[in-house]
Specification:
Helices cover 41% and strands 20% of the residues. The strands form 3 sheets. It has a 5-stranded parallel sheet, sandwiched between helices. Strands 6-7-8-9 form a 4-stranded antiparallel sheet, with no helix packed on it. A two-stranded antiparallel sheet has the order 10-11. The chain starts with a strand and ends with a strand.
Length: 217
């Protein structure tokens, strides 16, 4: 699980990052400019942003990220005790928050809840149909008689669909969240992966809305 932590306090940031690195792959940014550069270069499974950092606030950065259809889950760290900042965080696109001061174990609990909620590196088998089961950690789809190994990109696309069921997902959103910025493929390449997935899990699971995107049922 790859996490981007944005915390400008060097002591607190090192303490949080050091603790979380015992369990996750964590990178640490000290301000919004550095965080944005890292996001442009790499794909993360979870953002943990402090509100008060130099440059854009954590809330402003989440709002900007969401404007580019990046749906990476985001936890806000806040020293504020009022509901105004919490409402702004959720409105911007955060899904959870933790108030300072907090126990490191509390943050880990919230991360684990995010992992389950968004199926991040989910190792629990996923029932696709009565006959088909997906095993994320092995990137395989099984029925009673056969086992099909997905390619890494097919597995990433399926993981993304599973994490966002019954929601219209545009081609641009898939491209931006599955591929690195400098490696974005053509729309034809994405359609090829979708076609291959349908051959494995059934065409009815991934519904195309022409000109708009896909929906996972």
């Amino acid at each position: 699980m790859k996490i981007l932590l944005m915390e400008d306090d060097p002591v607190l940031g090192d303490i949080i990052a050091g603790y979380l690195r015992e369990y996750y792959d964590v990178e640490h940014a000290f301000d919004s400019k550095e965080a944005q550069e890292m996001i442009d270069e790499k794909r993360y499974d979870l953002f943990i942003f402090d509100i008060n950092v130099p440059g854009k606030s954590g809330i402003e950065l989440i709002r900007e990220i969401r404007s580019f259809n990046d749906t990476t889950p985001a936890i806000i760290i806040t020293a504020y005790g009022d509901t105004k900042h919490l409402k702004e965080s959720f409105d911007a696109g955060a899904h959870d928050y933790v108030r300072k001061p907090f126990e490191l174990e509390e943050l880990k609990v919230r991360i684990e809840n995010s992992r389950k909620l968004f199926h991040i590196e989910q190792n629990t088998p996923v029932k696709l149909t009565d006959e088909l089961t997906y095993y994320p950690h092995k990137q395989t789809v099984k029925n009673k008689n056969d086992e099909h190994k997905l390619s890494p990109k097919e597995a990433q696309i399926l993981d993304y669909f599973i994490a966002h069921p019954h929601r219209l997902i545009s081609q641009e959103e898939l491209l931006q969240n599955i591929w690195e910025f400098d490696q974005l493929p053509s729309g034809a390449t994405l359609r090829s992966y979708i076609r291959s997935l349908r051959e494995v899990i059934g065409g009815q699971k991934i519904v195309t809305q022409r000109g708009m995107g896909y929906r996972f049922e």
